[in-house]
From TrEMBL:
Signal peptide: none annotated. One of its GO terms (biological process) is phosphorelay signal transduction system. Pfam families: Response_reg (PF00072). It comes from Uncultured Desulfatiglans sp. This is Chemotaxis protein CheY homolog (Modular protein).
Length: 247
């Protein structure tokens, strides 16, 4: 299901961050630079989620929210408020507005998606290149293990989609049934800089969620990886079965 997301902010930079955060997902993005424009867009497209800045010229976020709440059609639209102030009084004021959540600036796209996933069921985009669909073909559930099949020939768009998907999967694993992750490099013939960067990024997502993991590779690649300082703390084994035992 495609979700309509409206970002309302007088900063083009912030709007870009919001749009980029939702780009891997099946979402149709709309934008406005103040509350007046935001209301007009909301009336026209009836968004499923509004990411709304609190402080804007012409009409600020509070005024726009009050206008929305005055209309029965828009009362139930969930809002994530963006604010530059983190003080207790400001937080209380935001909560009283009836917003679903808020984020203090500056923020990262990952933080926004984490909040949005509590409101919407986000699905990876199945676009013309098929990254979203292909990613799912590279993750296999085997009992208590999630096996991620990696290659040294992934495109950058695919790598980005994989990172987004895995972060979402790990978050759900943390909230539900605890699983372990095996990064399977069986088809990789040589270690490249881009592969190491991808692995480090994936490892960091597992570490952030306290999710145990190990790497499975053929003998040559395993030995090469064990010699890299960046991967010195990672369990690296020859074959998936050995990797399972290493966790």
């Amino acid at each position: 299901m495609t979700h309509k997301v409206l970002t309302v902010d007088d900063s083009k930079t912030i709007r870009t961050i919001v749009k980029k955060a939702f780009k891997p997902y099946d979402c149709e993005m709309f934008e406005a630079e103040n509350g007046v424009e935001g209301l007009a867009v909301a009336v026209k497209v009836q968004p499923d989620l509004i990411v709304l800045d609190l402080t804007m010229p012409v009409m600020n976020g509070l005024e726009m929210l009050e206008k929305l709440r005055d209309q029965q059609t828009f009362m139930a639209i969930p809002v994530i408020m963006l604010t530059a102030e983190s003080g207790r009084e400001n937080v209380i004021r935001i909560v009283k507005m009836g917003v679903k959540d808020y984020i203090v600036k500056p923020f990262k796209g990952e933080q926004l998606i984490e909040r949005a996933e509590k409101i919407l069921k986000l699905e990876l985009k199945k676009d013309g290149d098929g990254e979203g669909l292909e990613v799912m073909n590279h993750i296999v559930t085997d009992g208590e293990f999630e096996i991620v099949l990696l290659s040294d020939k992934f495109s950058k768009p695919f790598q980005s989609a994989l990172e987004e998907f895995l972060q979402k999967r790990i978050r759900r694993m943390k909230e539900g049934e605890r699983k372990k992750v095996i990064f399977d490099l069986s088809t990789v013939s040589a270690v490249s800089v881009s592969l190491v960067k991808l692995l480090i990024s994936l490892f960091s997502k597992c570490d952030a969620a306290s999710c145990p993991y190990a790497v499975a590779a053929n003998r040559g690649v395993a030995q090469e990886m064990k010699g890299l300082a960046e991967l010195s703390s990672v369990a690296i084994a020859e074959g998936v079965d050995a990797a399972k035992q290493a966790i």
